[in-house]
Amino acid sequence: MSTEELDTTELGEKILKVIKTIYDPEIPVDIYELGLIYDVFVNEDREVKILMTLTTPNCPVAESLPLEVEDKVKSIKLVKDAEVEITFDPPWTQDLMSEEAKLELGML
Fold this sequence. Notes:
Layout: H1 3-19, E1 37-42, E2 47-52, H2 64-74, E3 81-86, H3 99-104
Parallel strand pairs: 2-3
Antiparallel strand pairs: 1-2
Pfam families: FeS_assembly_P
Organism: Cochleicola gelatinilyticus
Domain MIP18 family-like: 13-86
């Protein structure tokens, strides 16, 4: 296994750790546990692409939340660049939330 492969796995874990520090301001659960992060791609050039959604298209943080994700991921030393793409396909539902998020919000 080359060090490149190890790096992208390690980098992926660092990215997730950072993403888990970002919260939807209306819900006391991080955006990862909420199920808003659909996918994280890291290429060999250490460029990151994050596919995420919002709870609704009219979400009050529709402008600021993706920028916060982008900025925080870009702040990781090993990341060369980061881009967030918003999608509403599939639309977010409460089913995408982790058990921990549902427990936190009293839904279990």
